[in-house]
Amino acid sequence: MESNLEQQENMREVDDAPKTSERVSEPERVAEFERAPKAPEALIPLAFLGLGLYRAWIEIVFVGSFVPFPVSDISLRDVFDWSMVAVSLLCVVLARRIGPFFNKRSVFIGAGIATTTATVLMFLTCVMPQAPAALGMVASVLGGAGIAFIILIWSELYGCLNPVRVALYYSGSIVAGAVVLYIYKGFMFPWLFVMSALLPACSLLCACRGFSELPVDERPSITWARFKVPWKAMVFMAAYALGYGLMETHMYGGVFGPHSAPGTLLMGVLVFVAVLIRGDRFNFGIIYRVALPLIVVALFVVPAFGHVPGDVAGWCMSAAYTGQSILIMLVMSSICYRLGVSAIWLFGLERAIRQIAMWLGRMLAAWAEGVDVLGASGETIVSLLAVAAVFAAALLLFSERDLTSRWGADFIEGGVGAAAALRKQELSDRCAEIARTYKLSSREEEVLLLLAKRKTVGIIQRELFIANGTAKAHVRHIYRKLGIHTRQELFDLLGVTEGHF
C-alpha cells in the first residue's frame, strides 16, 4: 500500500490535471490522451491463464474424445456431470457458511486430491478392464465433486476482475487449454497419465497465485448479502446450453473435443487479440452477432452441401459456443464485481443450470434419433430446436443495455453485509447513470467507480493493469466530460460521503 505522502501526491496530481489542461487546446488534449502509453495493459499474469488447465483436464479424463477409456454400461460422463451439479447446488445452499474459498486451504487441498484420485482411477480402467464400471463410477463422482470446487475457486477469482481483464484472461485461458491438449496428444500413455494427473493441482496453484496478486481490499468479501437471482442471465445461459447439448453428440466424433476443437481455438484467439488491441474500445456485442450466424451455418447451410466436410459444422458450432461462454463469464463476473454478489452462490447456480440444460439437450437429441414428426426427420427436429433455443437466448441478450447490466439481480434487505452491499450497489448504479448521461466509455466508467471508492491513481493503475500515464489520462477525460476540476466535486456529483467506504 502507498504511504500517506504518496497518496497525497497522487491525489494532487489527479485534481490538478484538469486545471492544467484548461490551458491546452482541445486537439492537443485529445492527442495527449491518445499518446498515453498503453503497453502495460497487454501484460497478462500467467497465473490467470491457469483456468485453461482444468478445461484441458475435463476433456482428457471425462469427455471421452481424447483417451479410449473402456465403455461402461453406465454413462460415466453423466455421473460426472450430475456429481458436479450436486456439489455446485450444495455450495449454493451453504454459500453463506462456507464462502469464500480463496482463503481456505482445505478446499484447495480437497479439490486437488479428489481430481487427482479421479485421474488415477480413470487411467486404471485402461489397465484393469475387469473392473472398469466400479473404478469409473468412483472416479466420476470424485472428479465431478472436485472440479465443481475448482470451477468455483476460479469463479471467485474472475469475479474480482473488471470486464476487460475477464475477457482478456478468459479467452487467453481458452487458447492455453487448447494448446495444452494439442501438446498432450503427442504423449505416450504413461506420460499422458502423469501429466494429466498434474493438471488440477497446477490449476489450483495458479488460482492461489492469482489471488495473491490482487489488492487485499479487492479479494472476495467475507460478508454476506442476499440478492435476487439474475434470472435473465440464467435463462440466457440455459437456453444456449440446451441448444449446444442438442448438437454435442454429433460435434466430437473425431479427434477433437469441446476444448480443443479448431473452432474453439479460433474464437478464443480472435477475442483475445481483439481485446488486447482494442481494450475498453472493443465492442463485446460483436461476439454474439458472430455466434448466431455461425450456428445457422452449422445447422443448415453446411449440411445442405454434401461435399462440404461435416467437421466444418462442428467447428462453427464450437466457435459459436465458445463465444457465448465468454459472454456468460463476462455477465456473471461483472455482477460479482459491480454488486458484490457471492461468486460461490452465483456461479454455483449457473454451473448447475448449465449442466442440466446440456444434459437435457443430449437426452432430447438421443430421443429424436429415428423419429419422424409430420414428415420431418429427427435430425431436422434437433436442428430446429437448437436454433430456437439459441435464438431465444440471443433475444434475451439483446433486451439488456449492455453486459454490465444487472440481468435481474437486485439486493434484498437483510444479511450480515447488508449495509455495505447496499452502498456498493447504490454507488455502482450511480456511476452507471453518470456514465450514460455523460457518454463515458466502459473503461472510463470503471475508472469512475474506482475514483468514487477513493482509490488513488497509483492503486487504479495497479488494479486495472494500465500505465500510470494511461490512468491519469482516463481521469482527465472523465473530469473534462463531467465538467469538474477536483475529486471533491466528483464526490459531490456522485453523492459520496466521507464514511461511504
Radius of gyration from the alpha-carbon trace, in angstroms: 24 Å
Structural class: mainly alpha
Termini Cα gap: 17 Å
Major β-sheet profile: 2 strands, antiparallel
SS summary, helix count:
20
What does this structure look like?
By secondary structure, this protein is mainly α. The chain has 20 helices and two strands. It has a two-stranded antiparallel sheet with strand order 1-2. The longest helix has 29 residues, at 311-339. The two termini are 17 Å apart. Mean pLDDT is 77; it is low at 1-42, 304-309 and 411-417.
Short summary of the structure?
This protein is mainly α and 501 residues long. The two termini are 17 Å apart. The protein is globular and about 75 Å long.
Which SSEs are present, and which pair or pack?
Elements: H1 4-21, H2 26-35, H3 51-63, H4 76-93, H5 95-98, H6 105-127, H7 132-158, H8 163-184, H9 189-212, E1 226-227, H10 231-251, H11 262-278, H12 285-301, H13 311-339, H14 343-368, H15 378-399, E2 411-412, H16 418-437, H17 442-452, H18 457-464, H19 468-482, H20 487-494
Antiparallel strand pairs: 1-2
Helix pairs in contact: 1-19, 3-7, 3-8, 3-9, 4-7, 4-14, 6-7, 6-9, 7-9, 7-14, 8-11, 8-13, 10-13, 10-14, 10-15, 11-13, 12-13, 12-15, 14-15, 16-17, 17-19, 18-19
Keywords:
single chain, 501 residues, mainly alpha, 20 helices, 70% helix, 1% strand, globular
